[in-house]
User: Fold these one by one.
Assistant:
Number 1:
Amino acid sequence: MASSETALSFSRLGREIASPVIVDLMARALANSDLLSLAAGFTDNVALPRGLVGRFAAELTQGGLDDEPLQYGQNQGRSRLRELSCQYLAAQPGECAEAFDPAAMFISNGSQQALYLAVQALCDPGDIVLVEEPSYFVCLEMLRGLGLRPIGIPCEGDGAIQADGLAELLRELDSAGERSKVKAIYLVSYFCNPSSRSLSLGEKRAIARVLLDVGYEIPVIEDAAYRELYFDAPHPAPSILSMPEFAPFPKLYLGTYTKPFATGLKIGYGCCTHSEWLEKILCIKGHQDFGSAHFSQAIIERVLDAGLFQDHLAFIQKHYAEKAFVLDHALREGGLREVGWKWHQPAGGLIFWLRAPEGSDLRMESVFCKGCIEQGVLYVPGELCSASGGLWHCARLSSGALPPNKLREAAGRFVAQAGVLAQSSGSSGS
Amino acid sequence: MASSETALSFSRLGREIASPVIVDLMARALANSDLLSLAAGFTDNVALPRGLVGRFAAELTQGGLDDEPLQYGQNQGRSRLRELSCQYLAAQPGECAEAFDPAAMFISNGSQQALYLAVQALCDPGDIVLVEEPSYFVCLEMLRGLGLRPIGIPCEGDGAIQADGLAELLRELDSAGERSKVKAIYLVSYFCNPSSRSLSLGEKRAIARVLLDVGYEIPVIEDAAYRELYFDAPHPAPSILSMPEFAPFPKLYLGTYTKPFATGLKIGYGCCTHSEWLEKILCIKGHQDFGSAHFSQAIIERVLDAGLFQDHLAFIQKHYAEKAFVLDHALREGGLREVGWKWHQPAGGLIFWLRAPEGSDLRMESVFCKGCIEQGVLYVPGELCSASGGLWHCARLSSGALPPNKLREAAGRFVAQAGVLAQSSGSSGS
């Protein structure tokens, strides 16, 4: 069909867009069960809330309700769901009761759509968004797809932001006449995908201080998609919405019920403190779909209203802690530390961020990556998580989807390739 | 908050976007039950498939499935749902078996998102999309929101396209040097929202012939959102995908499971015959949400697979036929024809398109519209459905949402205002 079809002239967006790697990773993981995927950030099928969804779907389809969940809902999302979500968030460590306002919240198709809408409202092609190095690769791809320039903030090897580096970067952008192009800073602050780090209160304060010092009162987008997935205890730092240091900034907090509840219901949210920005976001959503799946929203609302979200969280927190332990243990047992690889054991989330010895090449086209695919294990090359195209020696692994025995097997295959890499580096260096 | 908040510089999109009227209409209809809304194109709560959704939601949450509906799905949508949808479509009157290809289909958040993605891939600000006069007002708003210029094709009063007028318009655009800006033609071809007309085979052939004659091999977007909601018999014309006259054109067929099944599941689809266009659409969807609610998709797939979609359609077709009869009867009985108003009795869909005597003003700010709101009845002013800002004397009414007694009451209030309008026109003319 493609060979004989009419040539079409596409929009700038259409011409410049490339197929998202996430789509390819999801397709591969879903298509081939021999291939063990440590790449896709899926949740674990056995940790999905079948019972809760089944129970409340049944209740919701009995009829006789004040509002009908199989009917259209509001563009902004169900008001009771927004109320309950704000109550839940306000009860998190360090949060102010009034920081999360149901009127400032909107429900979206996963937090991804919330991010997309927020960026559409702010950025034109050529504009800049500051991101951590590494940052969430789906966000980087999305920004590039819209013709934007993600610029990485100088970070330590483990992903910790260098406050001085940020200040220097901002001054450089100033000198280069780019200040007006810098439209937002995007922070993945809880069990970061991919660094697995969380931003401490001190780090967040430092970021606010630097931005103010250098005069960048730009929108701050905090992506907290993994916040609920802590293992032992919630991360103690409050969100930017509760921090007085961020009072001068337009703020957007992104959260979701995909990872901590059911990815298949596809419900996320944003909470935007800037009324005009929120208004633009809602206008764009009105054009894109005028409301997210109302039935999915109603199911989650019922779960929250019945006080059962916390119980489910307690279950999956333990579950994902065990899986992270299995992956960490398998990587250690296999001897990955011994060949010079480093990583933090995550305290939450689904993601491991591995750093091979400097100079290693783990990119998509590398011998290492091809070796992994041949041996039947997939990972996300660190390069994809880098705004600057660096981080060639890093890899993102997910402990979320595979069952423990397959996690061990996948880790074994991965470590074996790391051994081959170490030998070839050693022999080429000798 | 707004008064003291940091001034933000928005994107071109953010600056130019206006709040969609659909959002306002939905909010009003949901908020105030004294106000009888003939405006919002809601489906009828009592016609929603509670039993089917409850039954299959229960089945799907039993576990032990090959794929897990509470997990993420594919960006393009469930393959079995696409297969079954294509089989259903291929069985419609006049369709070719191979016209609907599951590989060319993608699942979206209602057909609205499919349209948005398709337009994002094709159009830059300033570009032109040709539309019927009247056309679907949510599409017009969306196009304008993206900085595009919808241009109305010359049509008869009832909405029938004038083939000669189309040819003349295309030549004028040529002369004005605008040919390269014309990126698509958008047709609402089955029980059109708002004209309630369907395009005959002859009309469709004429459109294809004119486009080819004047050398506009532009993408053709056919919006068939109401196709399934026929009253007595399906509309006999096949879609553009099956018509040899449209073979040279890139084509997109839009359909949905919102109107004919459950608006609250928010599942629609597009079927795109142009592989490169489809690829761009999927890339953008990958960035926007990387897949629509998987659980909603799985429910609809089960309904189709069990052969129960047809039964549900048979029920709602009869239901909506009765409601259209009630509204039509109430408008006639009230004497609306006698004061010079015209309309076709719809043969399907949820919409009536009323034309007051030429020169009447039914716009949002008109005395008539304010009178209707005061009397507690809402409609969509025809002006909103006009690309050129004309059609002041027209009104879109929906028979979908209100129960029969309220439909009668709403019609009574509306006709009473038409009487007032007729008197004031008569007295001002005397």
Number 2:
Amino acid sequence: MRTTIVILALTVATAVRAQSPAANGDANRIVDTILAGSRGYETLAYLTDNIGPRLSGSKGAELAVRWTSKQLRDWGLEVRTEKVMVPHWVRGEERGRLVSHNDQKLVLTALGGSVATPPSGITADVVEVTSYDELAKLGREKLKGKIVFFYHPMDLKLVASGRAFEAYRLAVEFRGNGPSRAAEYGAAAVVIRSVASASLRTPHTGALRYDEKQPKIPGAALTTEDADLVHRLIAKGERVRMQLVLTPRSLPDVESSNVIAEIRGSEHPEQIVLIGGHLDSWDLGTGAIDDGSGVSMVMETLRTLKELGIQPKRTIRGVLFMNEENGLRGGHAYFDAASAREEVQKHVAVIETDAGAAPPVGFTSTLEGKELDAFKKRMTVLGRIVPAMYFESSKHTGADTSPLTDAGVPGFGFVPDPLHYFDFHHTPADTLDKVDPKALAQDTAAIAALAYELAQNGL
Amino acid sequence: MRTTIVILALTVATAVRAQSPAANGDANRIVDTILAGSRGYETLAYLTDNIGPRLSGSKGAELAVRWTSKQLRDWGLEVRTEKVMVPHWVRGEERGRLVSHNDQKLVLTALGGSVATPPSGITADVVEVTSYDELAKLGREKLKGKIVFFYHPMDLKLVASGRAFEAYRLAVEFRGNGPSRAAEYGAAAVVIRSVASASLRTPHTGALRYDEKQPKIPGAALTTEDADLVHRLIAKGERVRMQLVLTPRSLPDVESSNVIAEIRGSEHPEQIVLIGGHLDSWDLGTGAIDDGSGVSMVMETLRTLKELGIQPKRTIRGVLFMNEENGLRGGHAYFDAASAREEVQKHVAVIETDAGAAPPVGFTSTLEGKELDAFKKRMTVLGRIVPAMYFESSKHTGADTSPLTDAGVPGFGFVPDPLHYFDFHHTPADTLDKVDPKALAQDTAAIAALAYELAQNGL
């Protein structure tokens, strides 16, 4: 009997080194606990239903900082806030009409950061282009004083084939840079077709970026329906005149915060595995998928570890970033403070979750080749959540954590099924009902499992 | 040889009586012509893109009367307009906020015909009910001065099983009569959950009907998202206070018109087969599926018959009714004028198309049992369009033609696939892009085939 016992003990010891079954036991326990009884949906419901929209500088954003801090503290976590000065852009009135076509009302929304039109609006002919090349060809003579209309529908075939983020990247170029590119030729304003994979006359906002060398002109997103209407009228050879009234204001910067909570590592507390989402949201919806769900995943991961009394070897630090949407000030503030503390290289890895709350399909990672393959093999615990999740190499694994990954910290980006993400993204329809509690729990379990593995066993 | 020829001639003669192959040849020709080269989508595009919304009393409605009249005349049809005095309700500002929950903006729309709130709005606690019984139980004491919230989601299982109109009928009760039922107990205003089978924060309007014995209070439809938000907050036991600002106006009645065009019957011109849709639309969208597509089907049927030089034995009369949405004044005006001419009973049948432009699935009919079965057998030509279309008995085959069917005229109601109709119905998203040109042509072919059969061979 004794011999047998010794042999068993040796087997276990080997297994501990190779697979870490005790630790794996904890990973399983974390996943199973979250799948069985996640309270993440309650967290998300409070953030979206009770607090609502959380644009940087708004009361909602401030309430979100206060409530999440208190909540994490109530769960027994160490919490601190990190000062971030954020832009304070306030959407005003936003109206459009086709004065050439029976004064039909257009449904549109100002792009984030847009300057205002004069109070009586801008009324001008619309010139449609599909590229910057076309813009250059038309030149100042044909564009001066006009409303430039960038018509670039999102590629729905890409979306359907699982590459929604690629389709987004291709179309969103004109939202970001279109206004300044058109201003270069004297345009009076820019409208784009909403970057959208679905629409019920649904405007999609998002930030523009002014080139400081060009005059700042107003920018707005038409719904896909309104954009297609203008496109059809122009295709018929008709002269289209549009009135645009936008009255946003850029107020002085406001002091706000990242919220940071952590579970200190038992052996290497100075080594950090960061999990992050962003607290701010656009103002049109209540930011359930962008990024209330990410915030909820981070908070629920910490709550679950605390509740289970699991303390991995390295620190798991949850960061709820402020101002991802229109400035990335939180991401930069975090990086600057970490640099000042000489802490950047102490980040074992960063995991960002900012892609909604559909069922999990994988992670992107800055790891490559064999290293990524080897790491993937360590993550068998994910099989408890869904049958298969991919790990795919990518230079970009998240916006808020990009200063860290740019500095060489290994990054992971969480990927829920992206098929419907851009149906809701940056719209009034980004609300709690778009999130399935079961999928949210699966997502949380995936984040928690990855964070735990990295914190317990390193990279 | 001669014998053979005689026998053949006899066979043909028999066939003419039983199946009317020459006539069937025309029916086939009509269907094939429409399927191959319908211009109905162009008609619909002009109505929706160039004219736009067509609420009764608006400039759009008047332009639609003028343009459709001219268009039909240009196609060589006999056209007349029939005077209809219509209500002139103008939507004003419409805003809502949850003053109890961080001033969150609500997305809502005034119900058609609603009275205004005071300019500063109505701010009151929200009381949720799901039925008139609950309203009665709560009584005046608990409802006085409150905003009554009728929470009755559309039954999506019914919608999915092909019974969207039944689901609509069950939910729309509260839109029509809710305000007056709540006013009976002293409510200050009513909000309902939009009667919707899909939403991206999309409000669905539609007419309310005031009971003249009750005080008139304002009524609005929240989007399903906003309604579900209020529902969740109330379910958590929270006090919900809402501010509603609605500034619609009811202006004096306006003179408008039904547009009537016909192809006179070659043998019985006094006998009429009516095909009808409605010219007016709600003001939020451009009325593509409600009911620009019906208008297009009626117009394209007439145009095709004219172009093909086909003149059936009885008259085919196309009627583009005014004011189906908020008064049915056109339907009544047509009936009254027909009564005055002693023409009501000269209607062989009426066919109404006001259910969108999805692919055709069938017709409802006031015919019953064997009579309907026998008629269905005559309509084999429909097999050229889609493999199978049903004929189903129903007392109600259309709103505009209901005065005629109530007077005993046989009715047919056209049914395109209803699955997605209430995704768009009465919303800003009822726009041209929701219509597939091929399905519209199939629909038109079905209407034309039915009208031709009735006009050529009677009922």
